[in-house]
Amino acid sequence: MDCIEATGPLRGIRVFDLTRVLAGPTCTQMLGDLGAEVIKIERPGAGDDTRGFAPPCIPGTGESAYFVGVNRNKKSVTLDIAKPEGQAIARRLIAGCDLLVENFKVGALTKYGLGYDDLKIEFPRLIYCSITGFGQTGPYAPRPGYDSLIQAMGGVMSLTGEPDGLPQKVGVPVADLFAGLYGCIGVLAALREREVSGRGQAIDIGMLDAHVAWLANQGMNYLATNENPPRLGNQHPNIVPYQVFPTADGHIVLSIGNDATFVRFCESFSLAHLLADPRFATNAKRVENRALVTDTLTPVMRQHPTAWWVEKLEALKIGCGPINRLSDVFADPQVIAREMVFTMPHEALPEGEQVRLIANPVRLSESPVNYRVPPPVLGEHTDAVLGTLLDLGKEDLASLRAKGII
């Protein structure tokens, strides 16, 4: 059924995919890229919610760019799990799967007989990964989770934005993405445990938990001081100067990570006199005198255009970079050299035309990711999967379709 034979470290692993929107599909796309066979279960006639998140659509198709971005290497099977016959088919498919990944609200699948407690005795080797807004326990467990809501409750919005401006969310849905990636990490760990013990298990991923986990240095800054870190705009909370500066024709990020680099910077651009000023002498002092450092360096950085600064600073091995728009990102020679965009055929496109997709960044020397199945149209693989895995014939499939089960 695959366009290309599955390779990668997860080849031979089969996933029953009950995810939709972004957090869950991020997890299962990563598993698919690593070689797993992913069977994506979608509602007949509707499918994953993100099929309707348009415009934009992929040119020449009615397929939303949002859906296509996180659903390659998956086979779309339409199945109504709200109906007993659909639930029976689901259990038959699960019997042949290693993993079940879902991101329904807590307890929602139990009413269909597809919760972990409903399946664990019959399928003791099954690994069951649940990704929800707030996890399976705690006072918020029943609440739905949405990316911007989690960014707000998880603290990152209080850290993002200009000091005197509004709190800001990150420009991409990082709460969803991190939860999906943590889910994938949990699945990989559970697969290893099953190799040792022979047992499956439940994996409980809460988006809020994941969000708190990646607060990283800012979270630790709070735990160390019991003080809420302020919003600093584009400045680093622990290193100065490490921020955006205006240039003669735009802006640049200047990242001076240690005192030795600051000395090299000052000596190279006629600023050696600053090194004798105790307010500039160490990073700790520069953090204390953040405004002074910024005000002192801003007119210096304005003297030359961005390209001039990038050339000079790179030659000195001082961290810097332009602030690229996405058109700049995808035209960047490093991004091109790393093949971060690739193409695949698509069922909705004429033969010979292909859709552009963002590549998986994981580079494995011996078992690399591969791209076998293009992002599917709704129900594209229903007959093939049910016919092959459950031995259902044309008449069986026609009957199920007539009853709205598939």
Task: Describe this structure in a few short sentences.
The chain is an alpha/beta fold and 406 residues long. It folds into 2 domains: 14-214 and 333-402, Rossmann fold (3-Layer(aba) Sandwich); 242-324, formyl-coa transferase, domain 3, CATH 3.30.1540.10.
What would you note in describing this structure?
The strands form three sheets. Strands 3-2-1-4-5-6 form a six-stranded parallel β-sheet, sandwiched between helices. It has two domains: 14-214 and 333-402, Rossmann fold (3-Layer(aba) Sandwich), CATH 3.40.50.10540; 242-324, formyl-coa transferase, domain 3. The model has no long low-confidence stretch (mean pLDDT 96). The two termini are 19 Å apart. It is built from 17 helices and eleven strands. Strand 10 and strand 11 (354-358) form a beta hairpin. The protein has helices spanning 23-33, 65-69, 84-95, 116-119, 147-153, 156-159, 174-197, 207-213, 216-225, 259-268, 283-288, 290-301, 306-315, 326-331, 333-337, 382-390, 394-402, and strands at residues 14-18, 37-42, 74-78, 99-102, 127-132, 202-206, 242-246, 251-255, 319-322, 341-345, 354-358. It is α/β, with parallel strands linked by helices and 406 residues long. The longest helix has 24 residues, at 174-197.
CATH class of the largest domain equals Alpha Beta
Helix fraction by DSSP (H/I, runs of at least 4): 25-40%
Number of domains: 2
Distance between the termini: 19 Å
Are there runs of 5+ residues with pLDDT below 50, and where? none
